[in-house]
Amino acid sequence: MPNQTDRPGDGRLALITGASSGIGEALAVRLAAHGWRVVAAARRRAALEALAERASGPGRIIPQVLDVTDADAFAALVTTVEADHGEIDTVILNAGDYEPVRLDELDAAVFERLIRVNYLGTVNGLAACLPAMRRRGRGQVLVMGSLSAYRGLPRAAAYGSTKAAVLSLAESLRPEAERAGIALRVVSPGFVKSRLTERNDFRMPQLMDPADAAAAIHAGIDGNGFEVFFPRRLGWTLKLLRLLPYRLYFALMRRLA
Ligand SMILES: NC(=O)c1ccc[n+]([C@@H]2O[C@H](COP(=O)([O-])OP(=O)(O)OC[C@H]3O[C@@H](n4cnc5c(N)ncnc54)[C@H](OP(=O)(O)O)[C@@H]3O)[C@@H](O)[C@H]2O)c1
User: Fold this and answer.
1) Which atom of ligand 1 is found nearest the CA of 68?
2) Is residue 27 part of a domain?
3) Structural domain count of the chain
């Protein structure tokens, strides 16, 4: 019997946003290698087409250009994909952006950019894919959060608040989604090597490769729990930090800021 991480897709259809690089790209490659048909969406057409060519069977990758900040385009994409390829079984709302921010360089435009992609892009994805899933009474949606969603962290004023919003959004909708037969879950990664973490000038504990992040997400697909988090040690540490009273919490954070 295959172990959880090697579970075959058997031709099921997944839609992954932000699949042109990083975690989304690695997940698309991994799912296609395990027999999924993967709709890989992002803005950079050339990167998506190169990805589709590189994918090795038994599944395949179907490139689709999408800007997740465009709600109408997102809804139209879901309708077209379902008409052309059938029912979307699993949606992974992974598209995201990041910018570290310091107190002396607060720029409202950065906050707006991140909230539009990370949070409103996720809302657009949910609004686009949930109606058909509700009609069918089945489906699975994973939204991309972050371990930085748990508490405010130095330099994460813009990014962390978008991920806290995504976490709250998923927690709020989960019970009703469950009643409608839809599994709505959050993925909370720690640090993963990508174009986004290249912008960090500090030491990133337990930095992971995108392929390992993709394996952890793949293992979480079809799971029962609400959250897929990794790496486990950093995740549990941050969960404990969440319990600290402010005096102790800020005593620790002052050393990182
Ligand atoms: N790396 C980490 O340490 C880490 C940790 C926790 C959470 N995450 C989350 O993981 C997700 C993937 O990030 P990554 O680290 O893999 O970075 P990445 O390589 O930069 O991937 C981000 C993806 O999002 C896409 N994207 C950005 N804006 C978009 C838009 N408006 N519409 C459609 N697609 C858009 C990008 O493609 P195009 O430019 O082609 O559109 C790219 O494919 C993000 O949500 C990020 O916040 C990452």
Assistant:
1) 32
2) yes
3) 1
| pLDDT digit string (tens) for the chain, length 257 residues | 334 445 677 889 999 999 999 999 999 999 999 999 999 999 999 999 999 999 887 899 999 999 999 999 999 999 999 999 999 999 999 999 999 999 999 999 999 999 999 999 999 999 999 999 999 999 999 999 999 999 999 999 999 999 999 999 999 999 999 999 999 999 999 999 999 998 888 889 999 999 999 999 999 999 999 999 999 999 999 999 999 999 999 999 999 88
Q: Distance between terminal CA atoms of the chain?
A: 48
Is the distance from the beta carbon of residue 192 to the nearest atom of ligand 1 less than 6 Å?
Answer: yes
Read off the CATH number of the domain in which 134 is found: 3.40.50.720
Ramachandran sector of residue 18 (left: φ over 0; alpha: ψ -120 to 50; beta: rest): left
Whether the pTM exceeds 0.90: the reply is: yes
Phi–psi pair at 65, nearest 5 degrees: -80, 130
- Of 119, 150, 159, 249, catalytic: 159
Domain coverage including residue 174: 13-256
Strand-pair partners of 188: 229
Per this entry, what is the length of the chain?
257
